[in-house]
Amino acid sequence: MNDAVAQLATVRAGIAAAAREAKRPEGSVTLVAVSKTFDADAIRPVLDAGQRVFGENRVQEAQAKWPALRQEFADIELHLIGPLQSNKAREAVALFDVIETVDREKIAAELAREIARQGRAPKLYVQVNTGSEPQKAGIEPRQAVEFVERCRQVHGLAVEGLMCIPPADENPGPHFALLEKLARQAGVEKLSMGMSGDYETAVAFGATSVRVGSAIFGSR
Ligand SMILES: *Cc1c(COP(=O)(O)O)cnc(C)c1O
Prior knowledge:
45% of the residues lie in helices and 17% in strands. By secondary structure, it is α/β, with parallel strands linked by helices. Pyridoxal-5'-phosphate is lined by residues 34, 36, 57, 81-82, 165, 195-196, 211-215.
């Protein structure tokens, strides 16, 4: 078996076990396979194995790979998980099914404009910088609930979830707990949290999707 396909099965089993452990229903956690830096030939076996939800962190890279793969596999769901520049909003709305990195007013306004213009509405998550790291994207936790509200009221955007990337050198649990609390306060259902190193913990804290790259495709 292809390495990535074997590792995909391992990750799926890990998610299922963590969900069982947390007494969460089977199928309540979506695996987003993060395929950034891997080309179509590396991705295709994972598609053949039935995986349909993928994450990419760059708009241009995703544009180069996914339209052709979508010709082969019609029901692909593509998530943007990297920072979005406002001059890429048009391409992002055209290509992605979920944009997980809405984190400032200007992006919200651009997305609203493009959604109206294209008549295509990707699902939207707000990225929260739970560790308040200066170099990291995401809205500050104390502004998150108000920002979700402004996305809805001012820009007419239907925000469905929150996303976070905890600081690399910290225990992720408190960050996942904070994101879950903010989601409840903001009235959003989806929680995108957990990566290769901590997806089982994220499931225990209520993740509805986990973004796993290297544990499936290998190191980048
Ligand atoms: C690359 C990336 C991931 C996947 O990271 P791994 O550690 O390889 O699983 C998840 N989320 C975001 C936002 C990423 O950029």
